[in-house]
Amino acid sequence: MEKKQNMTELMRTIDLVLDKVVWVNNNGDMVSLKDLLHVTNKDGSARNIEDLERPDLIGAFTSLQIRHELFSVKIADLSNDEMAAKIKDLVFFETKAILEKADVAVVDEKVA
Hints:
2 strands, 4 helices, globular, 112 residues, mainly alpha, 54% helix, two-stranded antiparallel ribbon
């Protein structure tokens, strides 16, 4: 029962973190990573970070760079796959930090 409760808390926390990763897109609209990942692909499958267009990857990564003061990484040097992997790492890092503060056991593997 505890594992299920921890997994539920983990998913809620990931959702919270995804909702906080925000930027203004090319149309001037404020979007969040959560918003973009809740849209399904054209074939009806769930969307993941690798499915995002480069401008959205840049927006999400820039948002996370600012929050984590990670200015040593140049976006122009990253491929889409590399940027998506870094976004996942930062989202998981932030999620884990929140859960540790709340004293919730965290599975020590990447999620997303």
